Amino acid sequence: MHFQTEALHAGYDKDNQSTMAVPIYMSTAYEFRDVEHAANLFALKELGNIYTRLNNPTTDVFEKRFAQLEGGEAAIATSSGMSAIFYAIANAAEAGDNIVCASQLYGGSLTLFSHTLKRFGIEARYFDVQSPQDAEKLIDDKTKVIFFETLTNPSIDVANIAAITEIADRHNVLTVVDNTVATPALCRPFEHGVDVVVHSASKYTTGQGLAIGGIMVERKDLVEKIRGNARYPHFNEPDTSYHGLVYVDVPLPVYTLRARLSLLRDLGAVSSPFNSWLFIQGLETLALRMKEHSHNALMLAQFLEKHPKVAKVNYPGLPSNSNYANAQRYFENGQASGLLSFEVAGFDQAKAIVDATKIFSLVVNIGDSKSIITHPASTTHQQLSDAELAACGVPAGLIRLSAGLENVNDLIADLSQALEA
Ligand code: PLP
User: Fold this and answer.
1) Which of 355, 369, 394, 275 lies closest to 24, judged by CA?
2) How much is the pTM?
């Protein structure tokens, strides 16, 4: 079936009320038929609801639908994009291990990797996403994950996905990709060899800036890469915290199973059923919205490219952009999503322009139906050192836009008057 059809129907068998809309099941826990039923659920002899920290019928529809849209096998919803990223890494790596990451990443991912994971004994080693071959030199026998974004925020690079997964496969290392900005409506990383996809659902998935959430999806047959792979003993050896379960021996999607039974159980960053329901509403219109976001962003990029005060425009939908070829290769009809950025003379000029816009809201978010303007150097990337800023491609005069769904002529007029500020 096609994406638009699955976005409306996948993962939901209408319950006995025949409701067209997926119901919100607000419940902490679920009643067992008897003790044997309870024991079977805990022993995975039967599958079913136990407690909302582990599973929930509304969240289940969101997970199944999202997995289908990504072309994956299974998904696990989390309380935020950051927790999805943390779980995707913590599922594979522990103290003494390392991860190889693109340096062009969302600021929160950079601080998670360079600071918090470091305190947990996991080292992050960075490569330039524009030079994927450099990732290979960083891999050793303690490397557990190669992590990158399909469409990077805020530097707006497009990864050469196949070049990175080819390296990872040669070394039997898992690839984890953040597909938040591209969304599965525009890019399906599993088709290019990626193993695990993560998202902040807080962006285009909810689509109207309504809720924080995240999701992690695993590809079909991922167990084949993990079974017997010396890099991943936790999946191949008995889990003493779960009565000796060996994850690769269970006939269930292995990466999400371990994340659910171990990480959700112990860390508990679960999606609220209400938020899962909001994300289901968002998915229904995702394909339509991504088309319009991409169109508006392209129009804005073309306008900015011609403006004398603008030194550089970063938008992979522009033929002049160095990422254009990758965008054409990896994105649906070359549509490059709603995120673009441009550079003006410096910090002060950027500040003046941002303050002068009227329709664009000054907000640290992306992927809302309302257009957003951000100055990364004073907000999302403020905690990074100058060297870290340079490495992730965020100069002080960089302004990021998230093109919304307003009439694009109004957006162009607003930017035009702000640039005169
Ligand atoms: N990944 C990307 C690309 C993001 O832009 C963000 C947030 O801006 C995140 C992850 C983190 O997501 P959340 O804010 O839902 O934790």
Assistant:
1) 275
2) 0.96
**Whole-angstrom distance, CA of residue 68 vs CA of residue 55:** 18
Residue percentage of the chain with pLDDT more than 70: 99
Q: Is 147 in the pocket of ligand 1 (CB under 6 A)?
A: no
- Best residue among 203, 270, 278 to mutate for probing ligand 1, ranked by most atoms within 8 Å of CB: 203
Ligand 1 atom with the shortest distance to the CA of 214:
15
**Looking at domain 3-281, which CATH architecture does it have?**
3-Layer(aba) Sandwich (3.40)
Largest CA distance in the chain: 73
Best CATH choice for the domain 287-420 from the list 3.30.930.10, 3.40.50.720, 3.40.50.880, 3.90.1150.10: 3.90.1150.10
Comparison of pLDDT for 386 and 24, the residue scoring more = 24
Helix (H, G, I), strand (E, B) or coil at 355: helix
The confidence band for 160, taking pLDDT boundaries of 50, 70 and 90, is very high
Ligand 1 lined by 153 (C-beta under 6 Å): yes
